[in-house]
Amino acid sequence: MATVKINGKEITVEDGTLILDAARQAGFEIPTFCYQARLSRLGSCRMCIIEIGGQKKLQPSCVTPVMHGMEVFTENETVKSARASMLEFLLANHPLDCPTCDKGGECELQDFVFKSGPRRSPFSESKRRFHDKDKILSPVIIKNHNRCIHCERCVRICDEVVGRTALGSIGRGAKIMETSFMDSTLDCDHCGNCIEVCPVGSWMSLPYRYKARTWDLKEIDTVCPYCATGCQFTIGARNNEIVRVKSKITTGINKETLCARGRFGYNFIQSEKRLKKPLLKKNGKLVESSWDEAISFIKQRFGAGKKTAGIASARHTNEELFVFQKLIRDVFKTNNIDLDSRFANKWVTSSAIEVLNLAAGGISIFDALKAEVIFVIGSAISNENPITDYLIRQTAVDRRKTLILAHPRRFKLNSSANISLRYKPGTEGEVIKGITDFIEKGVFHGNVVGDISQVGEKFKNAKNITMFLGADILRLDNGTNVVAEIVALKGLLKKAGKNIIIQPLFDRCNQRGARAMGIHPLFLPGLKKVKENGMDCGEILDAAKKGEIDSLYILGEDIVSMYPDAKFAKDALSNIKFKVVQDTFLTETAKTADVVIPGASYAEKDGTFTNQEGRVQRLRKVISPVGNSKDDLDILCSIGGFAYKSAKEVFDDIKKEVLGYKDINFDALDGNGALVKGHGAENQGSRVKGQGASEIASASPRNDTSSNPYLDEYPFLLITGNHLFHSGRLSQNDDVLIKLLAEPFVEISEEDAKELGLTDKENVKVKSSEYEAVLKLRVVKGSQKGVAFMPENFDSVSVNQFYKKGQGIARVKIEKQV
Amino acid sequence: MLTDNTIENIKKALTKYPNKQSAAMDALRIVQEEAGYLTEDALLQVADMLDMPPPELNEVATFYTMYNKKPVGKHHIQVCTNVSCSLLGSEHIVEFLSRRLGIKKGETTLDKKFTLSEVECLGSCGTAPMMQINDDYYENLTDGKIEEILKGLK
User: Fold this and answer.
1) Nearest-neighbour CA in chain A from B142: distance (Å)
2) How far apart are CA A392 and CA A379, in angstroms?
3) CA of A681: how far to CAs of A307, A360, A748, in Å?
4) Looking at the DSSP assignment, which residues form a beta bridge with residue A233?
């Protein structure tokens, strides 16, 4: 510990603390430009210079650590005049076009000059000027080089946090430009973090350009509705219209960072295509109706006693999902309720719930990342959970840590990984078993590309291990086997006295919360076992096909587009007599419905999401629902006849039934949210060993590649997932995100492309036994051979059409388009 | 596109360095020696060979005035205009050369014989003002001396 005197005030801090941090702790504000807590230290802007007693020259406080007994002055005349001089130098080349600059009002340069800058400048030469017109570098990013003050935060965040290194400096001296390669169009993640960290108006958001002055915005803190990382952000609205989303350095696990989806994916809210009125099917056509008519129609047709079921999407709030399961279970009297239509079956999802220990309390990702070994399997994390990717990247910089990524595809985080494993989809269990066998017996089998023995050694030598399991595993028919292997590995490591944390990586914002709310055919709220097992999504569709389902309530889920066999899903749904779809857009599923009711988007309602860590965060209403659409909670309450008036009232009821939420105060939830506690329902539905074992066996693995008759004709295993710029089918309605990626593509490894004589960006024919399409090819160096990937985000080529129910992972062939 | 020869030479150079990125400057020198200047394509190709993000390689290429980003004439005249040379009249030398060759700084004569550039310190402050033509230093410059030098250049 070191005791230092700052402006006469004594403070004791850890050894090695920066003077800047010590001064801020002591309550003194020091202005900075180039300093950013999570970035490497640059010490170039000289704004933070301070005087140290006994030293003649002023020192930059952002790179100088404290020493015991040091005396520091941050506010004396010498420092103040030096600070003013630094600002004078910056202003010499700054255009001072504040009246037309989007940053005006929240500009750090403006604020510091106002506070401590010179009021006049003797500088009479002409200012440096790079261009007259701002440069559009991407559909979302626009750059003004003239305003730049060269703090290089943009360059560093792109390299160190985002991991893209799309930016760099061009030139030197006064004429230096921080920009893209050759100052040309950016081919990057379009995350806009360069915009966020820019202290001036040099990097700007193109969609927000000239939309508002910052002081005219109504700003509300809320949580991102895309993946389950659960980033906090602030929505800025003007005249009931959302004009921007920005992150805040002070709140959330994401702090100042976001991804392209979060930052620019708000435009779907005001899309023309939004559903604005309830629709009723009359004479085979959906026609607009009044709310009263729609609700009474549903009440009349959707009654108890009939064979009913409900399927919900994990994009809904805890409160809506809780009320939804109440509607299905209490009013319609059935346990036929499931979440999402992409997952294999209820045994896979329930065994995952168990191995991920979702019934226990949440674990902060920062605690999870303290482990020496971080192992990620089953998620293309850079695309599915971009901000978790950032956090892992920044942790992996520590040389004492080992990052192991196991996935068929190569993606961005691989460049930060110590060990990368490649495998064929469906053989996740073999990978885990290989590690277990190596630790136990020193030998292993299996077709994994990469060094399993090295992974085994790392596991053996570590005291703390964190495993991240991706949502890919939930989609495998043999997912229970994978889970069983993970349980075995976990048991082995536990026995060796190691601390194991298993964290989920989910691709929808409230997947974890939805399970806790009882959106599962086997679990009630709080993950208590049901008395009588319900049907999962696949079983509901099977029953529907046989004509055994009378009515189905679909809350925000697009089954026709997502269920792995589009034709089957459509057929099955057409056999259901009465279908209600509640959604924000007229999805393929909604088109088949008898009643379509327009729900609200994330910015139009209140509630809570629980992210993958188990962190409960507040979603806040910013604008009123567009057109005649309504808050989803209101709709569900009026159909079910529940008396809840607000999300808070529902939350109070959740607290009674879901024990882990008991101590959470809805109104007090701030930017950091609150981690859930245990639900007191651990190890109830033991699906892995003992009870339910026969069910696991019946869901036997279908990844036995040797005996598959399709293998010769269709050599590629097809995997699907979200593209970095998209999420489910929702984002294709966003006119900004669609500019970032408008067309689906098929991605294969370089090896395969060479063998087939195909080159990057050419059009190829992709064919399965069910469907064929022409797509643009993307070739990736270092991906698993024999695996093809397609984003599942586009109606134009709906990936699930390639699938055939019962075949497991789809197989395709890829041919030159002639 | 880099020639096979260039690629071969870069590969050879790579063996001299502890990691690929350390060879950045040498690789760019090799490209320039054979192609005369660095094109966008060449930078991208070198970046790929060195496993380096292109913007980072571009930082190196644009920081050093010794790397040409445009085609240059047969004789590349680089006049130092840093402090010592500037105090001893380098601005006049640039102006003199400019007048004499009929081009502005950064330009090349129509016959592609001369290119005039202003560069940062070349480490020859003791003999300022000075300039470098291709790989050779010319020091303690005066108008007369420059005339002589230009005459000697064919």
Assistant:
1) 28
2) 13
3) 29, 8, 43
4) A222
CATH of the domain at B118: 3.40.30.10
Of B40, B53, B56, the CB nearest to A182: B40
- Asked if residues A40 and A28 have their Cβ atoms less than 8 Å apart, the reply is no
| B79 and B147 both lie in a single domain | yes
Which token pair is A489? 């590995």
Chain A hits for B58, Cβ within 8 Å: 168, 170, 181-182
Is the pLDDT confidence value at A598 over 70?
yes
Whether residue B56 sits in one domain with residue B83: no
| CB contact (8 A) between residue A159 and residue B54 | no
Which strand (E) or helix (H) includes residue A319? helix A318-326
B131 shares its domain with B86: yes
- Chain B residues lying within 8 Å of A168, measured CB to CB: 53, 55-56, 58-59
**Pairwise CB contact (< 8 Å): A181 & B58:** yes
pLDDT tens readout for residues A167-217:
999 998 888 999 999 999 999 999 999 999 999 999 999 999 999 999 999
* Structure tokens given for A547: 């004509």
Residue B70 resides in a domain = no
Q: In the structure, what pLDDT confidence band is assigned to residue A269 with cuts at 50, 70 and 90? A: very high
How many Å is the Cα radius of gyration of chain A?
Answer: 28
Instruction: Indicate the number of domains in chain B.
Output: 2
Statement to judge: residues B40 and B105 lie in one domain: no
**Chain B residues lying within 8 Å of A172, measured CB to CB:** 62-63, 120
Q: Do B59 and A168 touch (CB under 8 A)?
A: yes
Chain A partners within 8 Å of B62 (Cβ): 169-172
| Chain A interface, best mutation among B50, B51, B62, by max A CB count within 10 A | B62
Question: Can you tell me the distance from the alpha carbon of A179 to that of A138, in angstroms, rounded to the nearest whole number?
Answer: 12
Same domain, B59 and B81: no
Under DSSP, the state recorded for A298 is: H
Per-residue model confidence as pLDDT tens digits over A378-410: 999 999 999 999 999 999 999 999 999 999 999
What are the residues of chain A with a beta carbon less than 8 Å away from any beta carbon of chain B?
Answer: 155, 159, 164-172, 180-182
Q: Quick one: pLDDT at residue A626? A: 94
B85 and B52 share one domain: no
Cα A173 to chain centroid, rounded: 39
Angle between helices A108-116 and A77-93 (to 10 degrees): 140
ipTM for the predicted complex comes to 0.90
A170: nearest CB among B40, B53, B58: B58
> Which CATH number is B9's domain given?
1.10.10
Digit-coded pLDDT (tens) for A528-584: 999 999 999 999 999 999 999 999 999 999 999 999 999 999 999 999 999 999 999
Q: Are residues B86 and B144 in the same domain?
A: yes
CB atoms closer than 10 angstroms to residue B70: 13
Do B42 and B96 share a domain, yes or no? Answer: no
How far does A416 lie from chain B, in Å, by closest CA?
Answer: 13
Q: What domains can you pick out in chain A, each with its CATH number?
A: 2-75 (3.10.20.740), 96-270 (3.30.70.20), 279-340+510-672 (3.40.50.740), 350-505 (3.40.228.10), 705-816 (2.40.40.20)
Q: What is the mean pLDDT of residues A143-153?
A: 97
Compare CB distances from A182 to B58, B63, B120 and report the shortest one's residue: B58
Which range of residues forms the domain containing residue B79?
Answer: 75-152
- Could you report the per-residue pLDDT of A252-266, keeping only the tens digit for each? 999 999 999 999 999
For A602-615, what is each residue's pLDDT tens digit?
A: 999 999 999 999 99
> Does any domain span residue B68?
no
